[in-house]
Design goal:
The chain has five helices and eight strands. By secondary structure, the protein is of the alpha+beta class.
Length: 167
């Protein structure tokens, strides 16, 4: 294979990885993808009790010490803490996400088996509280345009994970 085709294959894999929503505590989709990809490449893998994907490779020199390479599967995101009567969602961070780092943007809300798109809002720009205090999780909510009943039909509930939309 040429260097160009290897780079292209690497970029395709990287894009596939980035397209998998994987907020902290919800890494099962990524683990499934990784295990499938590893199997297709001829490598065995296992999941430990914490959901980590482990691949063991025999070394060429048995006397040398064991080497471990590690990487995170998860991404920072949000979790739904409340579903309001108008269908908007209150959220809190997962991981170290700070509201002003992503701003008001489209988000993917990961329901039980289904995703929907919402808009993260930091509150009214006309509110003195928001303007003076800056963006905070207390003022943040996700606008969905759906009723609480419709959200339930999509599997969106308290505890659902939210990540910035890929598009």
């Amino acid at each position: 294979l040429s260097a160009h085709s290897l780079n292209h294959a690497g970029l395709n894999l990287f894009t596939e990885l980035l397209d998998i929503p994987c907020p902290s505590g919800h890494e099962d989709r990524m683990a499934t993808f990784l295990q499938s990809r590893l199997e297709s490449m001829g490598f065995g893998s296992e999941l430990d009790a914490a959901g980590n994907v482990i691949v063991r490779l025999a070394g060429q020199v048995p006397e040398r010490p064991t080497i471990c390479y590690a990487a995170h599967m998860d991404e920072i995101g949000m979790t739904v803490t409340q579903i309001l009567s108008d269908g908007s969602l209150r959220v809190e961070r997962l991981g170290g996400l700070i509201p002003w780092k992503i701003g008001e943007t489209a988000v993917s809300i990961i329901g039980d088996g289904e995703e929907i798109t919402g808009m993260l809002s930091m509150g009214s720009g006309h509110s003195r509280k928001v303007v003076e205090a800056g963006a905070s999780w207390e003022s943040a909510k996700i606008l969905t345009g759906l009723s609480p009943e419709a959200l339930g039909e999509h599997g969106i509930r308290v505890g659902a994970a939210v990540v910035p939309a890929r598009d």
